[in-house]
Every structure is written in structure tokens, then in C-alpha cells.
Write a structure and sequence with these properties.
Layout lengths: L24 E2 L39 E7 L5 E5 L8 E5 L3 E6 L2 E2 L5 E2 L13 E6 L3 H4 L1 E7 L5 E9 L2 E2 L5 E6 L11 E3 L5 E4 L22 E5 L19 E4 L4 E6 L6 E5 L5 E7 L14 E2 L2 E2 L13 E4 L9 E6 L11 E5 L4 E8 L2 E9 L4 E6 L5 E5 L4 E6 L1
Antiparallel strand pairs: 1-2, 2-29, 3-4, 4-5, 5-6, 5-7, 8-9, 9-10, 10-11, 10-12, 13-14, 14-15, 15-16, 17-18, 18-19, 19-22, 20-21, 23-24, 24-25, 25-26, 27-28, 28-29
Length: 406
């Protein structure tokens, strides 16, 4: 039986939530001006970029011809949508309190894929079962990985093994435990990179302003993108080219809420939740060296926070202000579209939790093109991508939507 929840706060940023009306489809914004691209990076390193392959001649499609269609409802605070990429067509949806459910053939299956409510600590609004990634060889070994807060609110990255539509909760192999000083800014996203390694997005540990300065401290695992080799059946190892002799691959992040690799190019995209003024999208093209510093808490977006811009920082490719008319309060990172609508091919779609806005972003003609496209009216907790490259998003009120042509 489902538990009754009263939603008082955001899943990823502590501020007042918005109510959402349930409707079968979501319409685009009528006509909105293009929003910001990243500011010119004169004192800090510009993010390298290349033209995205097979993209619509550098233009956004007319959003009025597309919609986000409601395909499922009744979930409890869904925070992640993943595909096993095993040819089954299934979607796996995380409910924050500790359950993974399967969406198959147009419905949510009654029996959960995984239930670890007995070990997930969701006592804080940003705590819980937060991330899921399937092993590249999942079809052969049945391995998948989750990121959750457990005893004491500390982060656990664990491996489980599944067969069919079910996985035994006692198959857990805890790979990594990370101490969390506070109950917020846990990050939680997991994804496998084109190199076959498992990447994890970790928040700075919480409170406001990164009081322990974890973002810039390369001896702690908070405020980082971690990279580990899980090819061993018993444990994990640290890739030899990780820059600091530990699990850290990149640093300077506040609370990366959703990381993803482009299915075609292998480029990495990060939505990093801001402090009080600026939300940002970060980007690294495939083949970038390890050790990238995204600037927090020296910078918030393109703007000084603890200090002024410094050489060597990788500033965001897009940002938006909490004060903007078409801004928001908490970015939700998305995916590069690689589905059956070629006019959207190569466009990164991302959103904001508070406003429900969805933007598109891509690199063309020597610069980043960024435009506000849809007003969903929802509370966007996560995007998802199926094995065909089609996109979805989840709302905090329990709905799942699919991006389609009208």
C-alpha cells in the first residue's frame, strides 16, 4: 500500500515547492526570447566544444509541434529514470524512499524491481535512493548500481544483481561509503562513461556556501565527479589516470543533480544546482583530460562567490538567474536527444524544478545556442532516456511524461 506523503520542500534544493496540476499533455511556451548563453570567459578557461554531429543545421525546431505526454502517474517522488539498454524496452524508475519500479508495455508493474526501504535513510528532504546505472554488460551479468543515503545519512554506492524483473535485496555489494556532514547536497547521479567506468556525481556535503570548502578540496570526495572501475566482480579499482590518486575525476561542483553522457559522442553534461542566484549547466567533450575544476565555491556560475574568476576554471556553458523572468531555482540536468525525431538530434534538454521550464542547448556556429522551449507547470525531478534515445521527465508529484511529436 502506498504511503501518504505531504510535499513541503524540494528534493534537491531547500525552498518552497510549487503545486502541479495533472494534465495529459504539456504545451510549449507560446513565444519566448532566447535565454542566456554562458558569459564570455576572459579570465577563466573556456570549455572546449565541437559541432554536435548530425544536428538540424543549427536551429531549434518549432516547439509548438511537440509536447510532453503523460504516460504514467501515481508514483511516490520519482527521482531517476533509467534504461537497462538490454533490448527489453523497459524503463526503471526510482522512488526516493527506496524502491525501483518498472514501466513496461505502457504500465507500471505491480511488483518492484528492487526494494531496499529497510536500509535507505530518507529522513532529510534531499536524502533517499537517488541514482541508478546499469552495467554495460547487464544483459550478461545482471549487475546494476545504485546511490543512496543509508545509516547515518552517509552515501552508499552499491552493486546489486537482477534476473528478469526482480533483484534480490540481499545481493547488495557495498562498493563505496562516503561520509556526509549534513543531510543536503548529496548529488546521487550515476552513469557509465564511454570508457566503461562508472561515474558518480557528489554534492559538496551541504549547508549553504560550502562551509568546509569541500568543492575545492581534492582529498575529500564531496563536490566532485567520481570515477571508478567496477569491472572486477568483487570490488572496484581506481583508474590509473584519475588525477589525485583517489576516486576523484573532476571537482568544483556544488550539487550535481543529474549527469549524463551523450549516447553518440560520449560528451559529459552536468546540471549543477546553484547557491542562491545562479543555476548552471557544465559540459566536457569526450576525451577531455581528468582534473577539470568547475569552480565552486570560488564561483557560482560565471560569477564570483568566494573569490574572483581564476585561470584554469571551467565555467558553465549555460546559466540562468533566480531573478530572471524565465529563470527558476534548481536546475535538473537532462540528456542529449538521440531518438526518432531527427530535427532534435544533438540538442541537450534540461529543466528547472520550481518553474517546470525546459530549455534546449547545443553548440553551433562557434557558440552555444540556448533557448527556453517548454513550460510544463511541473516539478521536474529528473529526465530519463530510453535505449532508443527518446526522452522523459518525472515530476515530484508522481507523473512520468514522454517527449513526442503532436
Amino acid at each position: 500500500m502506498k504511503r501518504l506523503l505531504i510535499l513541503l520542500t524540494l528534493p534537491i534544493l531547500a525552498c518552497g515547492g510549487l503545486a502541479e496540476s495533472v494534465s495529459p499533455t504539456i504545451t510549449p511556451l507560446a513565444s519566448r526570447p532566447p535565454t542566456m548563453a554562458a558569459a564570455t570567459q576572459t579570465e577563466s578557461q573556456s570549455t572546449p566544444a565541437t559541432e554536435n554531429p548530425i544536428i538540424n543545421a543549427g536551429a531549434f525546431p518549432d516547439a509548438n509541434s511537440y509536447e510532453w505526454k503523460l504516460i504514467a502517474s501515481g508514483l511516490e517522488r520519482p527521482v531517476d529514470i533509467q534504461s537497462a539498454n538490454d533490448g527489453s524496452g523497459r524503463l526503471f524508475i526510482i522512488e526516493k524512499y527506496g524502491v525501483i519500479r518498472i514501466y513496461e508495455n505502457g504500465q507500471i508493474l505491480d511488483s518492484p524491481f528492487l526494494d531496499i526501504t529497510d536500509r535507505v535513510d530518507e529522513s532529510g528532504n534531499e536524502m533517499g535512493l537517488l541514482g541508478l546505472a546499469f552495467d554495460p554488460a547487464y544483459g550478461e551479468n545482471g549487475f546494476f548500481y545504485v546511490n543512496y543515503t543509508g545509516d547515518g545519512g552517509n552515501t552508499r554506492i552499491s552493486r546489486f544483481q537482477a534476473s528478469g524483473n526482480f533483484s534480490e535485496s540481499n545481493s547488495e555489494k557495498v562498493l563505496l561509503v562516503i561520509d556526509q556532514p549534513y543531510p543536503n547536497h548529496n548529488g546521487g547521479g550515476l552513469d557509465f562513461g564511454p570508457d566503461g567506468y562508472l561515474y558518480a556525481g557528489m554534492g559538496d556535503g551541504g549547508l549553504a556556501g560550502d562551509p568546509h570548502k569541500n568543492g575545492q578540496d581534492t582529498t575529500v570526495l564531496l563536490g566532485k565527479i567520481l570515477r571508478i572501475d567496477v569491472s572486477s566482480s568483487d570490488t572496484y579499482s581506481i583508474p590509473s589516470d584519475n588525477p589525485f590518486g583517489n576516486e576523484i575525476w573532476a571537482y568544483g561542483l556544488r550539487n550535481p543533480w543529474r549527469i549524463s553522457f551523450d549516447k553518440v559522442t560520449g560528451d559529459l553534461w552536468i546540471g549543477d544546482v546553484g547557491q542562491g542566484d545562479w543555476e548552471e549547466v557544465d559540459y566536457l567533450p569526450v576525451g577531455s583530460p581528468s582534473g577539470a575544476n568547475f569552480g565552486w565555491s570560488i564561483m557560482e556560475g560565471n560569477h564570483g562567490y568566494d573569490d574572483e574568476p581564476q585561470p584554469g576554471l571551467l565555467l558553465p556553458v549555460a546559466e540562468y538567474s533566480h531573478a530572471d523572468t524565465y529563470g527558476g531555482c534548481s536546475v535538473t540536468g537532462g540528456y542529449v536527444y538521440r531518438g526518432t525525431m531527427p530535427e532534435w538530434n544533438g540538442i541537450y534538454l534540461y529543466g528547472d524544478y520550481c518553474t517546470g521550464y525546459i530549455w534546449g542547448l547545443f553548440f553551433s556556429n562557434g557558440g552555444w545556442q540556448n533557448q527556453l522551449l517548454f513550460e510544463t507547470g511541473g516539478t521536474i525531478t529528473t529526465f530519463g532516456q530510453d535505449e532508443s534515445g527518446e526522452l522523459y521527465f518525472a515530476s515530484d508529484t508522481g507523473n512520468i511524461y514522454q517527449f513526442i511529436k503532436k
